[in-house]
Predict the 3D structure of the following.
Amino acid sequence: MLRIIKTEFLKLKRFHILLIGLIGMTFPAILSVFTQAVATGEAKKQYFDFFALFNSTIWNSATIFMPVIFTLIGGYLINREYTDNTLKNILPVPVSFQRLLLGKLLAMGILSVLFGLYSYVVTLVVGLLFGITGLSAAVLFNGFLQMLGTAAFTYTAILPIIAFTSRKPGIFMGGVIVSFLFGYSAMFIKNATMRSLYPILSGLTVMRFDTATFMNTSEPGNLTLSMVSLAVMLLLAIAIVIFTNPPQTVSNHKKRKTAGMFLRQGQKN
C-alpha cells in the first residue's frame, strides 16, 4: 500500500492538475479579503482581524473550493488509469483493483491535508500583504488546527462521491458537479441537528468551528452526531471500494490472456 501511495505522489509531479489545485486553494483567502472590502452595511465586519480572516477562509474552503478541488484531483488520478490504458498492465502484477483504488484514495487524503496546510500558509501571507491585524500565537495555532482538520474532514465527506465515480471511466467530472452542489448547499442549512448530520458541516462541528457569523445562528451543532455522520461517510466509501469490480476492459484483457495461455499449451501438446 505504501508503494502505491508513493507512486501516486511521483505521478503527481508530472500532472498539471496539481497546479490547478494549488491555484484553486489560493482563492479562499483572497475571496475572504475581497468580500470584506466590497461589503457594505451589516455585511461588513467592523473588526476584520486574522481570526476573522482564518474563519472566513475555512468557511469558503469547506463549502466551495475543497469539495470541488478534492473530487477533481482524486477523480483525475483514478481516471488516468483508464485513459492511459494502464490498468491492464497493473492488475496482473498482481494488484487488485480494490487495493489500487484504496491506495489512490489514501494518497488523495494525504494530499488533501497538504492542501489544507498550503491554504493556511496562503491565508497568513494574504493577511500580512493586506495589513490585517490581530495576529497572535493563539490565532496561528487555532487556525492551523482548524484548517488541517477541515481539509481532512471535508475530504472524508466527499470520499464516497470520489469512490463511486471511479467505478467507470470518464464520469468523475459528474462527481465534481455533485461535490460542488454538496458543499454549496451547506450554506442554507440552519437547523442544528441537520448541520450536525450534514457531512460537509459535520467536520466544522468536530473542529469547533464557529458557524454563527456565516449562518446567522448561535445554536451549536452536536459533536456526537457529527462524528457519526463522518464515520458513516467513511464506511460508505470503504464499502463502495470493496464492492467495486474491475472495469470490463480489464476483465476482458485477463480473459484473453488466460485463453492465450491455454491455446499455447494446446499447441505444444
Remarks:
- The chain has 13 helices and no strands.
- The CA atoms of residues 129 and 267 lie 75 Å apart.
